[in-house]
Amino acid sequence: MVSWMISRAVVLVFGMLYPAYYSYKAVKTKNVKEYVRWMMYWIVFALYTVIETVADQTVAWFPLYYELKIAFVVWLLSPYTKGASLIYRKFLHPLLSSKEREIDDYIVQAKERGYETMVNFGRQGLNLAATAAVTAAVKSQGAITERLRSFSMHDLTAIQGDEPVGQRPYQPLPEAKKK
Q1: Do 4 and 70 lie in a common domain?
Q2: Which InterPro entries match (predicted)?
Q3: What is the spatial distance between Cα 146 and Cα 168, in angstroms, rounded to a whole number?
């Protein structure tokens, strides 16, 4: 438990906050070398995050697992080992370059399907809302009918101003006061 908390703190501070600040500095100073360094780091760190999510669920029981995570994040960041640059240049860049066309096509398909899916969900949501509104109206109409049936005929005739227009007693309009 203590190992987990320490590794989480190290990954958050040294794996995210420190690189985020130096990425900001690289963008601010427009230093292309630093900008490229931190872009490579973030690409590798994104892959690390995906792998970490799966590994935390499957191999967290492994002895020294959290200590290895700490060591890996420090290795990625170290300017001496240049771990992120090494992983990016030796593995990720060649892999992404060879699969770039396929990945782009997949993203386009996912966007199209995502739009269609959202339209379908929207349509289903509107149908569900319309059905719920009609059901509520029908149920409330039944409740009003039941409420009216509970009145006696005498109660209904005693309501003022509810008579049809032709059956109302004639009441002359009050005359305007003369000056």
Answers
A1: yes
A2: TB2_DP1_HVA22
A3: 27
